[in-house]
């Protein structure tokens, strides 16, 4: 009855996967959402997680995910809205499905999850939502207009739900910077990013995990956004 419960979206890879593993090691019951990244979630299942598949571009799939969580638990200590998709202007301008996905994944789905799971969050001793936004919510890139706008919407949702759900549920955000380069990032791109980052380092995933732990441990924080970016937001 005292076991803490978490739902992490986009848990199949990168930060979502590592965070879910960290929570499992702490003794959490973890609902690990994935869409297509099944390999990582299979590993989490072996470690005790409950895998939940949902396509965030399908309203029925989203509703099924919410229903499954409600069926399996009567409280939710932590909701991490981490799922993401990253498309530049050319991609969304030539493909309306990708344009819709950007806003569905980063704004619509977090809204629905927070709204419909608020009762479970309030039933926890210190229910907490952590939204993963981006440093570009404050200084948008003209190459990723839709993505930046959707993440800015999530930042606004953070503050709105922090007001609405207080004092029973806290809602905060993390704004990552150069945490972990993607395989397709070439040496020139990595060098350019490091030159624009005051701490001159690729952060890795542990600083993000540590920030989630900090937000969990400080019950007097809500409506806040914490940059975990090596200072890069100062340069963009």
In a few lines, what is going on in this structure?
The chain has eight helices and seven strands, in the order E-H-E-H-E-H-E-H-H-E-H-E-H-H-E. With 236 residues, it is an alpha/beta fold. The mean pLDDT is 95.
Question: What brief labels describe this structure?
Answer:
seven-stranded parallel beta sheet, Rossmann fold, single chain, SDR_fam, globular, alpha/beta, Sc_DH/Rdtase_CS, 8 helices
Structure notes:
It is built from 8 helices and 7 strands. The protein is α/β, with parallel strands linked by helices and 236 residues long. Pfam families: adh_short. One of its GO terms (molecular function) is oxidoreductase activity. Keywords: Oxidoreductase. Belongs to the short-chain dehydrogenases/reductases (SDR) family.
Main sheet makeup: 7 strands, parallel
CATH architecture: 3-Layer(aba) Sandwich
From the alpha carbons, calculate the radius of gyration and give it in angstroms.
17 Å
- Order of H and E elements: EHEHEHEHHEHEHHE
Low-confidence stretches: none
Question: What's the CATH topology name?
Answer: Rossmann fold
- DSSP strand tally: 7
**CATH level-1 class:** Alpha Beta
* Name given to the CATH homologous superfamily: NAD(P)-binding Rossmann-like Domain
- Please indicate the count of domains: 1
Helix content bin: 40-55%
Portion in strands: 15-25%
> Tally the helices: what do you get?
8
Biggest sheet strand line-up: 3-2-1-4-5-6-7
Keywords: Oxidoreductase
GO molecular function: oxidoreductase activity
Family: Belongs to the short-chain dehydrogenases/reductases (SDR) family.
InterPro entries: NAD(P)-bd_dom_sf (IPR036291), Sc_DH/Rdtase_CS (IPR020904), SDR_fam (IPR002347)
């Amino acid at each position: 009855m005292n076991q803490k419960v978490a739902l992490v979206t986009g848990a199949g890879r990168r930060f979502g996967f590592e965070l879910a593993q960290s929570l499992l090691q702490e003794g959490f019951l973890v609902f690990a959402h994935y869409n297509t990244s099944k390999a990582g979630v299979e590993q989490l299942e072996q470690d005790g997680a409950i895998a939940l598949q949902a396509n965030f571009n399908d309203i029925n799939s989203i509703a099924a995910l919410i229903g499954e969580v409600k069926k399996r638990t009567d409280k939710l200590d932590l909701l991490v809205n981490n799922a993401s998709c990253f498309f530049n202007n050319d991609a969304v301008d030539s493909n309306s499905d990708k344009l819709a996905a950007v806003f569905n994944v980063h704004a619509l789905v977090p809204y629905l999850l927070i709204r419909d799971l608020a009762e479970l969050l309030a039933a926890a001793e210190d229910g907490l939502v952590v939204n993963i936004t981006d440093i570009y919510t404050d200084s948008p890139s003209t190459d990723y207009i839709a993505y930046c706008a959707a993440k800015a919407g999530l930042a606004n949702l953070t503050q709105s739900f922090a007001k609405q759900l207080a004092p029973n549920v806290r809602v905060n955000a993390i704004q990552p910077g150069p945490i972990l380069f993607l395989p397709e990032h070439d040496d020139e791109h990595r060098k350019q990013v490091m030159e624009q980052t005051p701490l001159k380092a690729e952060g890795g995933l542990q600083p993000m995990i540590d920030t989630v732990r900090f937000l969990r441990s400080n019950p007097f924080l809500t409506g806040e956004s914490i940059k975990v970016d090596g200072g890069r937001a100062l340069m963009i």
